[in-house]
Amino acid sequence: MKDKLQEITKRAMEQIDAAEEMSALNDVRVAVLGKKGELTAVLKSMKDVKPEDRPAVGQLVNETRSAIEEKLAEAKERMEEAELDHRLKSEVIDVTLPAKKAKIGHLHPNTNVLQEVEDIFVGMGYEVVEGPEVEYDYYNFEALNIPANHPAKDEQDTFYINKDILLRTQTSPVQVRVMEKGKLPIRMIAPGRVFRSDEVDATHSPSFHQIEGMVIDKNITFADLKGTLQEFVKQLFGADTKVKFRPHHFPFTEPSAEMDVSCFKCGGKGCRFCKGEGWIEILGCGMVHPKVLKMSGIDPNEYQGFAFGLGLERITLLKYEIDDMRLLYENDDRFLKQF
């Protein structure tokens, strides 16, 4: 029995010394000290040992177990120290290197201007309303007094999905949907993305954004329209901003007008920014056409209203003095981080 225990000890020590990984040490532990290990088998054979020899044999077995466990612990400690040393060498940190900078994002120029415009109109009691970008032809054209033979409905100008469904060319359909609900009076703006079949250049894009507004109430006049828009541009461009209205034509308003603002760079004197004219065109507007009111279920003899629409990108270009609309969509970090 003593010779067998010595043989088990010698073989275990050699295997422990040869082990290079923790898994090899664990294999030795299981093979020698496990439930089905060699040392456990010796203990189970104690019943065959003479009663008077059992204490001595039991002591030898315990000494063997202790020696193997001690050797395993030393080997494990040695391996852990070697692994730690390797990690310290391979994962060394140079504290003199500059730290990685955390890039903090910010709002896009378009979003900044949109929020500013919304804040101005909300402050005047307007509601911000959104609608679908994929729209029915009826809401985009017919209900806005744009008949079937109107050139704006040409497939070269408008993205049609089928004869009845298209990508909206303006946010005016949102106004029609609100009017149809019949909850009067109405004070609203409708911001959103619109689509037109335009070539991409410095001032055009097939996808851009509009902000359209509308007021429907009793005794609304063109004077209300002028006063509202004048207050709007004063808050947007500065208290000294002046406005000028020029006659125009829109199918859904009558009378209609284009509105210019005095150049906020030169104060109206004329400069390169306003092309020497002293004025900058920014939006179209007018009184809601009686036919449009009637088609939406509103009595034009009792209620009147005005509407206006402006391009968000145009306001952004003016406000930040950007000369190319494409810069807003190219996602060039060198450009966007200036705002």
From TrEMBL:
Alphabetically ordered keywords of this record: Aminoacyl-tRNA synthetase, ATP-binding, Coiled coil, Cytoplasm, Ligase, Magnesium, Metal-binding, Nucleotide-binding, Protein biosynthesis
Report the EC number(s), separated by commas if there are several.
6.1.1.20
The UniProt note on the cofactor reads as follows:
Binds 2 magnesium ions per tetramer.
Domain Aminoacyl-transfer RNA synthetases class-II family profile: from-to ranges: 111-330
Coiled-coil regions listed in the entry: 65-92
Keyword hit for RNA-binding: no
What are the recorded GO MF terms, alphabetically?
phenylalanine-tRNA ligase activity
Q: Which Pfam families match?
A: Phe_tRNA-synt_N, tRNA-synt_2d
InterPro entries reported for this sequence: aa-tRNA-synth_II (IPR006195), aa-tRNA-synth_II/BPL/LPL (IPR045864), Phe-tRNA-synth_IIc_asu (IPR004529), Phe-tRNA_ligase_II_N (IPR004188), Phe_tRNA_ligase_alpha1_bac (IPR022911), Phenylalanyl-tRNA_Synthase (IPR002319), tRNA-bd_arm (IPR010978)
Region forming the signal peptide: none
Q: Where in the cell is it found?
A: Cytoplasm
The residues listed in the UniProt record as binding Mg(2+), with positions renumbered to this chain, are: 254
Q: How does it assemble?
A: Tetramer of two alpha and two beta subunits.
Similarity comment text for this entry: Belongs to the class-II aminoacyl-tRNA synthetase family. Phe-tRNA synthetase alpha subunit type 1 subfamily.
**Alphabetized HAMAP family for the sequence:** Phe_tRNA_synth_alpha1
**What is the protein name for this chain?**
Phenylalanine--tRNA ligase alpha subunit
